[in-house]
TrEMBL record, chain A:
Pfam families: Gluconate_2-dh3 (PF13618). This is Gluconate 2-dehydrogenase subunit 3 family protein. InterPro entries: Gluconate_2DH_su3 (IPR027056).
Length: 143, 552
């Protein structure tokens, strides 16, 4: 992913899991998770991501990374319902929305070893202890 | 194809059944070869990865089969065909490794209820809907015949739990060898609710050490249990119990990464052995006096159907077109509940309390289900599986829901008794082949309508249980349509007395080939309202004992 694409995707996943008193997808390295998996398990989805990021930026007149959370949420809600312009998304945005949503949840709530859930952000939020080294041995997690 | 030295028996598959047969035969002095398509994993392969395990294979699964080159064809209800890889949806995967599913299972160790062996007799007249369009039948054996072998499995592999407060189980000669694990917070909450309803809660029997047993330690109550290899080896699978015992006899040769292509027969219709590919893809012939098929319901059916010859043009044991029929797993239904107090205490394995009040005796229903709390939920499992109606799937409100209720939610569910269905089946695909060139399994057909009815009735029972336990909100988990297979896959080589309506006889021998046995979930006539693994194990002991007693 190019730096520009990463910025766009960051703005996207931030609307799916926003930051509040606890870290959101942006802080928890979800983009890093997706980037890593696009080179591995999700290799075949590379073109889909490329097209989707270009399309959503067109939709926001080139400003998707700059507009407010509310505005981004509005665009994504339209895609979820399949109501985004068919000129940009053949199915109104549904399929790609679902894919990014699934990958975002994986990156945020899954094991940190895959590049997401940085510093156990989501596990801290819900109050489960981090991975033990082995058995029940814990080590200090610095945040 | 090079032929190897002949052995007394060749066993295909080192899952729940194969290693038990291997142990019994080698202890009786038989030289045996056990062929396993996968590898041998150990406690060190636990890896605690929430996205890559046998329960949640989002990023693939560690214990096989490999996603590359092992597809299946899945036919949906509207006739659409999909090519599915092993970690994909609808594949009905069982781990392909030494121990099979028993390496990474949740390890519930249920005995079927006596009625589960006589479903037609018990329900045929009172619930005609269950028989209509189904192949509901009695097993040719009874609970009482299997009872001593249930006990043998419980003691040799190791089961902990306490069923003394469950009045609904069949007679037992001996208690379980290990006490239950101490109850979790969730367990205590549900116990109170069940008792308030006049139900009979008890500690689920589990193939898991609660105290040191057989030289392995007790469970450490961690979060990574179902779907994982146990990091302290406290879970009892065939790979760390009966298989080492069998290897210690010196009579067992275990060959890994060997995939059987077909069972070979001579001109008299007797099996002569098997043809298999080794890890380099070289084809070998392993001659044997007896062939035991233990590949699990889908792969065993696939192997028999792929074993075509002049005498068996439709595949082995398939003269009456019954191989691969009646594929059934378990439709899991139940309910979710939210609470205003913490229910979560981060103590595994999570599942611990069950009720069997609804397995049988439900008016106008042919069976029911055991209901239990769910295994401990990893954060991603919670997010992908549990969301109250009306809660959005993303955004600030979804995040708030997870934050608030991850530690305050309980799922209760159970494996619904299924009505076997002739059209729910495994065939071999006419075109698609795996990486070795063997035609792949093709799954088609859906669930019998009465199965859905039973499942729906169970959701109401589960909701009532959660409400009585103090849930502030509950909602049902309904049954999906589609082929039922999954890890509890069964039924494809039905046991029966009549060769025209079953594949194997009461001793699990093919009706039409005297030296081929099937020993796995395939032979189950019906699959109970319980996880089936202990029944597979008990039956393996029963059949192997008969084999060494009856064929010296």
């Amino acid at each position: 992913m190019s730096p520009e694409q990463a910025v766009l995707l960051e703005a996207w996943v931030d609307a799916l899991i926003p930051s509040d008193q606890d870290a959101g997808a942006r802080d928890a390295g979800v983009v890093q998770y997706i980037d890593r998996q696009l080179a591995r398990k999700y290799k075949r989805q590379q073109p889909a991501y490329r097209e989707a990021l270009a399309a959503i930026n067109l939709l926001a007149e080139g400003q998707f990374a700059q507009i407010t959370l509310e505005e981004r949420t509005e665009f994504l809600t339209a895609m979820e319902k399949g109501e985004a312009p068919k000129t940009l998304f053949p199915d109104g945005g549904k399929a790609i929305f679902e894919m990014v949503l699934a990958h975002t949840m994986q990156g945020f709530y899954g094991s940190p070893r895959h590049g997401g859930n940085k510093d156990y952000a989501s596990w801290k939020m819900i109050g489960v202890p981090p991975l033990p080294v082995r058995g029940r041995q814990q080590y200090e997690v610095k945040s | 194809m090079s032929a190897l030295p002949r052995v007394k028996a060749v066993i295909i598959g080192a899952g729940a059944g194969g290693p038990i047969v291997a142990k019994e035969l080698t202890q009786a002095g038989w030289p045996v070869v056990l062929l396993e398509r996968g590898q041998w994993y150990t406690a060190n392969d636990c890896r605690k990865d929430d996205l890559r395990n046998q329960r949640n294979s989002t990023l693939g699964h560690p214990f096989g089969p490999d996603d590359d080159g092992n597809p299946r064809v899945v036919v949906t209800a509207n006739g659409q065909q999909r090519l599915v890889e092993p970690s994909g949806p609808g594949y009905s995967n069982n781990a392909a490794c030494v121990g099979g599913g028993t390496l990474s299972y949740g390890a519930m160790a249920w005995r079927f209820h006596p009625n589960d062996f006589q479903m037609k007799t018990v329900y045929g007249a009172q619930v005609p809907r269950a028989v209509e369009g189904s192949t509901l039948a009695d097993w040719p054996i009874t609970y009482d015949e299997l009872e001593p072998f249930y006990e043998k499995a419980e003691w040799e592999l190791g089961v902990s739990g306490d069923v003394s407060t469950d009045p609904f189980h069949g007679p037992r000669n001996k208690p379980l060898p290990m006490p239950p694990l101490p109850p979790t917070r969730e367990h205590l909450i549900l116990e109170k609710g069940a008792k308030a309803l006049g139900l009979h809660p008890f500690h689920i029997p589990m193939l898991r050490n609660s105290v040191p047993y057989n030289g392995r330690p007790a469970c450490m109550r961690c979060r990574w249990c179902v779907g994982f290899a146990c990091e302290v080896d406290a879970k009892c699978g065939t790979q760390n119990t009966v298989l080492p015992t069998a290897l210690n006899t010196g009579l067992l040769e275990l060959r890994l990464q060997c995939m059987v292509k077909e069972i070979l027969v001579d001109e008299h219709g007797k099996a002569t052995g098997v043809a298999y590919f080794d890890r380099q893809g070289q084809l070998w012939e392993q001659p044997a006096e007896h062939v035991i098929v233990s590949g699990s319901a889908i792969e065993s059916a696939r192997l028999l159907l792929n074993s075509k010859s002049r005498l068996f043009p439709q595949g082995l044991g398939n003269r009456y077109d019954w191989v691969g029929r009646n594929l059934q797993g378990h439709t899991y239904t139940g309910a979710f509940g939210l609470f205003d107090q913490d229910t979560y205490d981060d103590v595994g394995p999570g599942a611990g309390i069950a009720i069997c009040d609804y397995n049988h005796g439900n008016p106008d229903l042919a069976g029911g289900a055991m209901l239990a709390n769910e295994f401990i939920r990893l954060p991603y499992q919670f997010v992908s599986g549990l969301r109250a109606p009306g809660v959005p799937r993303w955004g600030a409100a979804h995040k708030e829901f997870v934050r608030r209720f991850y530690r305050r939610s309980i799922a209760v569910q159970g494996p619904t008794q299924e009505m076997p269905f002739f059209e729910s089946r495994v065939t071999v695909d006419p075109q698609v082949r795996d990486k070795l060139g063997i035609p792949v399994a093709r799954l088609s057909g859906n669930k019998h309508p009465h199965t859905i009815e039973i499942g729906d009735a169970m959701t109401a029972k589960a909701e009532a249980w959660l409400k009585a336990s103090g849930a502030i909100q509950t909602w049902p988990k309904k049954a999906g349509q589609g082929t039922s297979g999954g890890q509890h896959q069964a039924g494809t080589c039905r046991m029966g007395n009549d060769p025209r309506t079953s594949v194997v006889d009461r001793w699990c021998r093919l009706h039409e080939v005297e030296n081929v046995h099937v020993v796995d979930g395939s032979v189950h006539v019906t699959n109970g309202g319980f996880n089936p693994v202990l029944t597979i194990m008990a039956n393996a002991y029963r059949v192997a004992g008969h084999l060494v007693g009856g064929a010296k």
